[in-house]
Amino acid sequence: MTLHATPIPILKDNYAWLLQDGDSGATALVDPAEAAPLIAAIAARGGRLDLILLTHHHADHVAGTEEVRARFGCAVAGARDDADRLPPLDIALGEGEEVTLGTARGRVIATPGHTRGHIAWFFPAGPLVACGDTLFSLGCGRLFEGKAEDMFASLAKLAALPGETLVCCGHEYTLANARFARSVDPDNAALHARVAEAERQRAAGLPTVPTTIALERATNPFLRAADAATLGMLRARKDNF
Ligand code: ZN
Ligand code: FE
Predict the structure, then answer these.
(1) I need a labelling partner for 150 at 20 to 30 A (CA). Which of 110, 141, 208, 231 fits?
(2) Which domains does the chain have, with CATH numbers?
(3) d(CA 141, CA 156)
(4) Which residues are 93's β-sheet partners?
């Protein structure tokens, strides 16, 4: 069983993700905010799209959904709790429920905090997790509709995934996050090594993601926060950094 994840850069600094099941060729697209480059990317990979997976309702994650759906006739899956403000869902799911992608299965992890209905999609076959604006490399999403307690619990669920799990997040924020991470965790050698790697990747025009759960546990100040109060303090400081 193999599931390949490819980030497709769209808009200013967003990533949509193509997930392809190596056994069946079945393909999913996470957070199609801009249709034209995604339709082109899918066409370049054989022109098959079975499923759109949505993480949350923000326009920079869903705006291209209808155009992509119309082009490929694929099903759209998202959070039941947010169905009233997502594009029309063919598959509406909640915590622990699953979608099928060829021979792979993806499980919903409810990750409120950035928005109330935010979800992540965990595929053991990667293993990978498409986590939208909840967990970024060296950072986490802003608390638009949740409290620090919500985000702390959501990040704890993601941190408990296997260390080799690929983190397929929604934005290229790594270097901006790195400045803040180094300011609050200046003696972390793993963090300094990660920032140097990310600087090389960006200088070469490459994405810094996917990262892994193990690397984020070692370097991400928001995953390393001991409790919700610490996370809330970090998030408030980062908002004004
Ligand atoms: Zn968002
Ligand atoms: Fe976003």
Answers:
(1) 208
(2) 3-239 (3.60.15.10)
(3) 14
(4) 79
Name the token pair of 134.
């909840």
53 C-alpha to ligand 2 centroid (Å): 15
Contact status, residue 169 vs residue 209, Cβ threshold 8 Å? yes
pTM of the entire predicted model: 0.98
Distance CA 127, CA 119 (A): 17
Strands 128-132, 3-10: pairing is: unpaired
Active centre residues (catalytic): 56, 58, 60-61, 114, 133, 171
Ligand closest to CA 11:
2
User: pLDDT digit string (tens) for 11-30?
Assistant: 999 999 999 999 899 999 99
58 CA → ligand 2 middle, Å = 7
**In this structure, what token pair is assigned to residue 98?**
């699953």
User: What mean pLDDT value characterizes the chain?
Assistant: 97
Lookup: tokens for 191: 């963090």
Distance 62 CA to ligand 1 centre (A): 10
Residue written as tokens 């060296």? 138
Gyration radius of the chain's alpha carbons: 17
Measured distance between the N- and C-terminal CA atoms of the chain, rounded to whole angstroms: 43
Helix, strand, coil content of the chain in percent (nearest 5):
35, 25, 40
11 Cα to the center of ligand 1, angstroms: 13
